[in-house]
Amino acid sequence: MNLWFWVIASCAAAYAIKLLGYLVPRRWMKNERMTRIAGTVTIGLLASLTVVNALGNGQALAFDARIGSLAAAAVALLLRAPFLVVVIVGAAVAAGLRLLGWG
Amino acid sequence: MSIAVATGLYGISFGALGVTSGLSVLQTMALSLLMFTGGSQFAFIGVIAGGGSGAAAGAAATLLGIRNAVYGMQLNAMFGPRGWRRFAAAHVTIDESTATASGQSDRLEQRRGFWSAGLGVFVLWNLFTAVGAFAGNAIGDPKQWGLDGAAVAAFLGLLWPRLKGREPAAIAVVCALATVLAVPFVPPGVPILVAALVAGVLGWVSHARAAADRPLEMEGLEPDLDPYAHRAHRDEGPDEASRGDSA
């Protein structure tokens, strides 16, 4: 039930942020610093989420089949594969490495 | 059309990963229906999957949603919806609808592009989230299918299009390192917020330096779109439309 609370609260926050964009005075738009920070925070969060999902195991770091997924996804992206192909490659490599007995 | 296919497939991944992260089918579907901003939704389930608290998941999702406020300001300046439409427009303000609108040059087309992309993606996104969630629920052990590896690939796929130029790449590397360093010392989920803080400080500092020094090197650092620049040279074609990559 607790998780439901955070699901709903986060949804409300997401909507409030979107609506805020329509309600704030137009001149705020000219604040380049805030625009820039919104951009750097987006990159930072995505980089961090990538690493946590690849290496995180609770409060420890683990090196398992997910490393293979990360490397394979990077290769797929370098080859300009579409998003779903990248995701499937990531899954296939992790599943395959586990079949071989690693991670 | 290509947006529709991409959205469908992306929605299936989200649905499947949502239920394997530990959310119920209903919770996963609620995120798509009510939060409706793909990056934030992935952030939420990413933190939960890593054992993080609901609070940390909410914080990460909220921070990643900040760019939607910037989009809202841009869209408001473009065609300024009024009355109840403004509240509906806010809900479908996402990467794809903003990109589609700013790819058009006149007001009417911008409005049309925004609504058709926004509503179209909304319907497909929710439909395919449901498909993915039920499928993810049915397959048994998610690790055996490599779904944790799929999540890693999905986050890298979301990050990738934003790594245009040296500075975004440097920010990504620094934040990745900050995350790794923080993991052993703070509860799960919090390292992601540490990285967000680092990124915010970097953005603040680099803005000050760039402003004092030379014109901003904004490539890849902006939340993707600048309709003002587009208006200034509105004859330069529709390539802006391809720049907002993922919800």
Automatic annotation (TrEMBL), chain A:
<dbReference type="Pfam" id="PF05437">
    <property type="entry name" value="AzlD"/>
</dbReference>
<protein>
    <submittedName>
        <fullName>AzlD domain-containing protein</fullName>
    </submittedName>
</protein>
<keyword id="KW-0472">Membrane</keyword>
<keyword id="KW-1133">Transmembrane helix</keyword>
<feature type="transmembrane region" description="Helical">
    <location>
        <begin position="37"/>
        <end position="55"/>
    </location>
</feature>
<feature type="transmembrane region" description="Helical">
    <location>
        <begin position="6"/>
        <end position="25"/>
    </location>
</feature>
<feature type="transmembrane region" description="Helical">
    <location>
        <begin position="67"/>
        <end position="100"/>
    </location>
</feature>
<keyword id="KW-0812">Transmembrane</keyword>
<dbReference type="InterPro" id="IPR008407">
    <property type="entry name" value="Brnchd-chn_aa_trnsp_AzlD"/>
</dbReference>
Automatic annotation (TrEMBL), chain B:
<dbReference type="InterPro" id="IPR011606">
    <property type="entry name" value="Brnchd-chn_aa_trnsp_permease"/>
</dbReference>
<feature type="compositionally biased region" description="Basic and acidic residues">
    <location>
        <begin position="227"/>
        <end position="247"/>
    </location>
</feature>
<feature type="transmembrane region" description="Helical">
    <location>
        <begin position="114"/>
        <end position="139"/>
    </location>
</feature>
<feature type="region of interest" description="Disordered">
    <location>
        <begin position="221"/>
        <end position="247"/>
    </location>
</feature>
<keyword id="KW-0813">Transport</keyword>
<dbReference type="Pfam" id="PF03591">
    <property type="entry name" value="AzlC"/>
</dbReference>
<feature type="transmembrane region" description="Helical">
    <location>
        <begin position="168"/>
        <end position="186"/>
    </location>
</feature>
<keyword id="KW-1003">Cell membrane</keyword>
<keyword id="KW-0812">Transmembrane</keyword>
<feature type="transmembrane region" description="Helical">
    <location>
        <begin position="42"/>
        <end position="66"/>
    </location>
</feature>
<feature type="transmembrane region" description="Helical">
    <location>
        <begin position="192"/>
        <end position="212"/>
    </location>
</feature>
<comment type="similarity">
    <text>Belongs to the AzlC family.</text>
</comment>
<keyword id="KW-0472">Membrane</keyword>
<keyword id="KW-1133">Transmembrane helix</keyword>
<feature type="transmembrane region" description="Helical">
    <location>
        <begin position="145"/>
        <end position="161"/>
    </location>
</feature>
<protein>
    <submittedName>
        <fullName>AzlC family ABC transporter permease</fullName>
    </submittedName>
</protein>
